[in-house]
Structures are given as C-alpha cells and as structure tokens.
Amino acid sequence: MMNRPITLLALIAVPLAGCTVGPDYRPRAASELGVPPAYSVAARQEAQEDLRQWWTAFNDPLLTRLVEQAASQNLDLAQAVIRLRQARESLVQSRASLLPTVDAGASASRTQAITGGAGGSTSLSLGADVNYQADLFGGIRRGVQASRAQLEASGYDYATVLVSTQAEIARNYILARAAQAQLANARQSLAIQDDNLEIAGFRVQAGLVSSLDQEQARASRAQTAASIPSIEASYNSAVSRLGVLTGQAPGALKGEMEAVRPIPQGPASVAVGIPTDTLRQRPDVRSAERNLAAAVANIGVAEAQLYPQLSLGGSIDSNAANIGGIFDLITGRIFASLAQTIFDAGRNRSQVRSAQAAADGALLAYKQTVLTALEDVENAVVALQSAQRREREFMIALDAATNSAILSRSSYRAGLADFLTLNQSEASLISARNGLVGARSDKAAALIQLYLALGGGWDASATPTPDTVPTPASGSN
C-alpha cells in the first residue's frame, strides 16, 4: 500500500525536476557595455605584455622584495582571504541543500518500583529520520549558482586588493626615493648658500657692498633650510607606510631604506593592448561581472517561492526491552507534503521584483566599472607621456640653470655682478633640480598607475580560490 503514494510522488516530481524558474545568465558583449574598439589616446595598442610581475621592470631588488613580501604579510590581503574562505563555505552550504538531511537518535530508560513491588522494566529505542526538500522549480539550484558566482567574485576581490597593495607599495617606495633626492638637493643648495653668505659677509666687512647683500643671503639660506623638515616628514611618512603595508611596525624598514638610492625608472612605454584586453585582465571588472551573475541567479531563487514546495521524508524506529532484541521489530514511516502559499499580501512577488531591481543595479555597476577601467588606462597613458615630456624639459632647464649659477657665482666673487643676480640664478637652479626630481617621480608613479589600470600583478588565467592564493599572516581563534 505504501508503494502507491511513493510512485505517485515520483510521477509528479520527475517531469518537474528539470524545471528551473528565473532568467538564465547571459554574458554581455563588449558593445553592450560601451567598450570602444580602441583607446582614444595615442598608445601602444599591440598585445599586452606579461604583467604578472610588473614591478621587476623597475630593476630595484628592494622594491621587488617588498612587493612580494606583502603577498604573505599584508593584513588587508589576510582579510580578503578570510572573505574568500567564507564565500567557499557559503557555496558548500548551498550545495548541501540539494541533498537529504539524515538525523539519528537513541534513548534508553529504566522503570523501577520504589515501594510495594519488585522488579522493573527497561526500554531501548533507536531511530533515524530523513528529510528532503525537492527542488521542483530550481530555487535551490539557482541558489547554488548565486553562491558559486559570489565565490568567484570574492576571488577577484582578493586579486583587486592584491594589485592595489602592490601599486601602493611601489608608489610609496617612489615617494621615499624622491624625498631622498629632494633632501640631497636641499642640502647641496644649503652648502652653496652658506658659502654665498660667507662671501657676502666678507664683502660687507671690506666695504665693497652694503649689508643688503648679506641680509638677502641670510634670507635665501633660511628659506632653503626651512624646506628640509617638511621633506624629512614626507620621507618618514612614506617609509612608515611601507612598513605597515608589509605587515610590520611603521619603523621596521627605516634601516633598510636609509641608504640613498635613485628613483627607479621603468620602461619608456607599455603595450596596453585593446580595451577588451583590459576587461579580461582587470580583477575588479571580473568581480563586477560575477556579482551580476549572482544577482540574476537570485531572481530564480525568489521566483521559486511563488510555486508549490514539495517535502519528502521518512523515519525508521525500533523499540525493545533489551539490547539483544533491538532489531526484532522495526517500524517505518514515509510521508510527503505539498505546500503552496495562498496569501502573503504580495511579499513573495515583491521579493521577485526586488531581486530584479538588484540585477538591474548590478548591471549598471558592471558597466560603470568597465568605463572606469578604460578611463584609468587612458589617464595613466597621458600622465606617463606628460611626465616624460616634463622630464626632458627639466633636464634642459637644469643644464642651463647650472651654467647660469656657475657664471653668476664667479661674477659675484669678482665683483662683476650683484647679489640679486646670483640669488636669482641659485633659485632657478634649485627649482630646476626639484622639478627634475618631481618629473621623474611622476613618471614612475604614472607607470605604476598604468600597470594597475591594466590589471597587472596577478594571474588572470585562473580564478583565485582559497586553495590557490597565499595565506597571509592572520589571527586565529
């Protein structure tokens, strides 16, 4: 008799088992996202180079070590790995909903007369329950799709944090080296101005010039000296930031960074490829695409709540007075229930509309991320070209200012030029030196920004998972 309802339920469930409500996700073509066939700025648009370790192009061993050290010690990356692990467990939980749940239990009791009687009775029982939520309309399967897309998005979020951390380390390293160069310029200028002040003092004592020359020399020297503390503060800030980015105390790298080194200079240009290459390479773009896929799957999760819910279950029980007879008599029960919401004041349909709105918002966020990525590339290309032109002009200016300062200094010593001419020449020399340092720093920073905009610093051929990414140092419970 029990076989009849089971057979009937099977006949109902089988034709519906392949029914999955909600829209299927469709990847968007580049044209739908507003991606042009080429960039609007002059750039090398041949195939992209291997950008997975772009920092090695600067040929600075310490910079390379710091960037690679961050992969295992940066605390932002450690948090990203934890979020990735959480997303994996969410997928495990979603998949578990596709399978039955089994519960088992056992109990024993003893009844004993306290007065007026003898003997007693023992009761033993074993039991197991099985429950299964039939996924007739694919709501659970859509939930698994959403969880899988979220896991992939979390992997790309980890990659986004990784490449951002790499770029930030490189930028602060450049800032530290630029500050060292500016300090060297300031101290060199200060030594020259000390010499000028001494000469002006001798000439005032000799009655050759008025005290105006000496006061102008003092003012110039003090202004140069006043610039040094702010440069030192900038240097300390950059080095402290490098320490924190590598998971250490702010002062941990001061000893290693103390030796003065030039500002690292990478290649003159980088092949940027075509815009669609950037979309495949940028982890934030790929994360936005996976978030859209998850949002579309969630529409099916919400729509499945509009349809009947079929639950299947069963139980097995055994009772006996002793262990030896526990399996002598076994009873079983099988049940099925079909539930349908009749009235909920529009809540379920509102949830469907909410899911659809979330998917629309995810699509707009995806498009925005794509356009921002293209904007980043073009801005970085222009910034690099601008810094290179400025560097060339400042090199000419430095050469001219150096010659002018030498001539002015010789003329002043010989009494053939006044101090105002010497002071102006010295100021032009200081400005040209700092301008060249600034241009070279900006050029390196623009190159770093271009590598970041192109999505360099990770392996774009594979989705990062908790099993394939390094595990940065993190706390444990």
General description of the model:
There is one protein chain. By secondary structure, the protein is an alpha+beta fold. The chain has a single domain, classed as Up-down Bundle (Outer membrane efflux proteins (OEP)), CATH 1.20.1600. The protein has 10 helices and 4 strands. A 4-stranded antiparallel sheet has the order 1-2-3-4, with helices on one face. One of its GO terms (molecular function) is efflux transmembrane transporter activity. Pfam families: OEP. One of its GO terms (cellular component) is plasma membrane. Its main location: membrane.
Describe the secondary structure blueprint for this structure.
Elements (H helix, E strand, L loop, with lengths): L2 H14 L44 H13 L1 H22 L4 E12 L7 E15 L4 H67 L5 H35 L8 H4 L17 H7 L1 H22 L4 E12 L9 E10 L7 H67 L5 H35 L24
Antiparallel strand pairs: 1-2, 2-3, 3-4
Helix pairs in contact: 2-4, 3-4, 4-5, 4-8, 4-10, 8-9, 9-10
